[in-house]
Write a structure and sequence with these properties.
The complex is a heterodimer of chains A (about 250) and B (about 260).
Chain A (H helix, E strand, L loop, with lengths): L4 E12 L2 E13 L4 E5 L6 H9 L6 E6 L7 E4 L11 H5 L1 H5 L5 H13 L15 H13 L5 E5 L7 H17 L3 E6 L2 H7 L2 E5 L6 E6 L9 H4 L5 H12 L1
Parallel strand pairs in A: 3-7, 3-8, 5-6, 6-7
Antiparallel strand pairs in A: 1-2, 1-4, 8-9
Chain B lengths: L2 H37 L5 H4 L2 H13 L2 H33 L1 H16 L6 H8 L3 H25 L3 H9 L4 H12 L1 H25 L5 H10 L3 H28 L1
Helix pairs in contact in B: 3-12, 4-5, 4-7, 4-10, 5-7, 6-7, 7-10, 8-9, 10-11, 10-12, 11-12
The chains are: A alpha/beta (about 250), B mainly alpha (about 260).
Chain lengths: ~250, ~260
């Protein structure tokens, strides 16, 4: 199968008047369509920079990022914080991306309404974001991203602000959506068990400047794979130990 | 409601009533003290005026309609300069935000103009623009415009960086960031700025009217002081107090609704 996206010797540094801070060094990997890749690395190693480059917010200083598709591809990006706007209702927040890209047509709106029903947000349509729980806020943020029907989904530690139980619930939800809609996803996290529980492969990065230390394909013996069931697979512990050692 | 809760509510009500009554009593006391001391010739009513004299001249000017004319002139000038300041202030702040180079270049000029005592500019503006309403309005604008630009622009700069990033991830550019994020999130700052500005506009209009007017409350004050009609001066000041209180209240109501 041909990859949907490939990174080729990507480098990136931040420049300030005090000096140059290299963030990424010689990153190359490919993603298959429909695959789920987790990226783990120590905090501050440049994981968010990597996602910014893939999403196109930043341009690599050298090397290239190629998207292989005959038609236009939208890359959805879920940030660490939900960033819902308090001056908009929950529903208006979910429509923000459509407004920006001027896609408020019937099909897109119906898709949002459908997602809202599916994730139990309909009763909260007209309330302000501050009245929602953390898990509900993150679901609303997810719908805002999905409203634009992304082909590739970038997840930047989207669960890190949630309490443990909500975190497992929301990651199950998001995993299910990604599987149902057969989307390609990249999850960035510093939580090794989260990375293994969701990924088909785990890319382990070094500290700054980040380089790829190891790519670990994940094969788990479970009946139906969900982030929660993955955690009970017999191989889970071994993968955990392997990556723990890599990160040491 | 529990006994303690109703007791608490009652105490709060009593406290509020005492505050309101005290405020009112102070007002009455000042009026009485003022009136009595002038009646007894403890102070000279010709110089200090008195509530009854103010009321008399007010009634007289109401009958010939001249007071309404002067009030409307001052209010009109204040309103016009207020709206120009808001529009120009937001407009220029948006330009500075869109174009960082421009803001870096003109920042020192803005700061100097803002810290300059604006009444110093007024005589020059009047020589340039003539002895007319245009000069008064420009004077009022010069009092508040620089502070407005700086405040609103600073408010724009405080926009949450992560939220800017969000708009970028949704495919938006500078205009989307401006219209969907920067302007709506600065609404509180803009409205609280209005509150300061309405007072400053009135200050600017009065300064302008002192120097270049044939009508308006500022004109009445300066004219009254020159011909020693202190009743006229005192009455104009009282009306100014009422006007500024009403204008402040209007903006306050707008602020509560946002």
């Amino acid at each position: 199968m041909n990859p949907i996206i490939s990174l080729d010797h990507v480098n990136y540094s931040y420049h300030t008047s005090k000096g140059e801070i290299p963030a990424l060094s010689d990153i190359s990997f490919q993603l298959q369509p429909g695959s789920f890749t987790s990226i783990v690395g120590p905090s501050g190693c440049g994981k968010t920079t990597l996602l910014s480059l893939i999403s196109g917010i930043l341009k690599p200083e050298s090397g290239s990022i190629d998207i292989h598709s005959s038609n236009h591809i939208y890359i959805g990006y879920m940030l660490q914080r939900d960033n819902l706007f308090e001056w908009r209702s929950v529903y208006k927040n979910m429509l923000l991306g459509l407004e920006i890209q001027k896609k408020c047509d019937k099909d897109h709106i119906e898709n949002v309404n459908h997602l809202m029903d599916a994730y139990g947000l309909s009763p909260f349509k007209h309330v302000r974001p501050s009245q929602l729980s953390g898990g509900m806020r993150q679901r609303a943020a997810l719908i805002r991203t999905l409203a634009l029907e992304p082909d590739i989904l970038l997840l930047d530690e989207p669960f890190s602000a949630l309490d443990y139980q909500t975190r497992l619930e929301v990651s199950d939800d998001i995993y299910k959506i990604i599987q149902d809609q057969n989307k390609t996803a990249i999850l960035v996290t510093h939580d090794i068990s989260e990375a293994i529980s969701m990924g088909d492969q785990v890319i382990v990065l070094t500290g700054r400047p980040a380089t790829i230390r190891k790519v670990v394909p994940i094969k788990l013996t479970v009946d139906t794979r969900t982030p929660l069931s993955s955690r009970f697979a017999p191989e889970f512990k071994d993968y955990f130990n392997e990556e723990w050692e890599e990160l040491e | 409601m529990s006994v303690n809760q109703s007791k608490y509510i009652r105490q709060q009500k009593i406290y509020k009533a005492i505050i309101t009554c005290t405020r009112f009593l102070i007002f009455i006391a000042i009026l009485i003290l003022w009136e009595v001391s002038t009646q007894l010739q403890l102070v000279n009513p010709f110089i200090f005026s008195s509530p009854s004299r103010i009321a008399a001249i007010f009634m007289k000017m109401c009958q010939d309609g001249s007071i309404l004319h002067h009030c409307m002139i001052t209010l009109g000038e204040t309103a016009l300069s207020f709206f120009i300041i808001i529009a120009a202030g937001i407009g220029i702040a948006v330009l500075l935000w869109l174009w960082k180079g421009l803001s870096d270049i003109i920042e020192p000029y803005l700061i100097i103009l803002n810290s300059l005592p604006k009444s110093a500019l007024a005589p020059m503006l009047i020589v340039w623009l003539g002895n007319n309403q245009k000069a008064i309005i420009v004077t009022a604008i010069s009092v508040a415009i620089f502070g407005t630009i700086l405040n609103i622009y600073t408010g724009f700069l405080e926009t949450n960086k992560d939220q800017i990033r969000l708009i970028r991830t949704l495919g938006g550019g500078s205009m989307s960031i401006l219209t969907k994020l920067v302007l709506p999130s600065s609404r509180k700052i803009i409205v609280s700025n209005l509150k300061v500005n309405i007072g400053l506009c009135l200050v600017g209009v009065i300064i302008g009217e002192f120097l270049a007017a044939r009508a308006g409350l500022g004109y009445l004050i300066i004219y009254g002081s020159q011909v020693f009609k202190m009743d006229l001066v005192a009455m104009s000041i009282v009306i100014l107090c009422v006007i500024s209180a009403i204008l402040y209240k209007i903006i306050d109501l707008i602020e509560r609704r946002t």
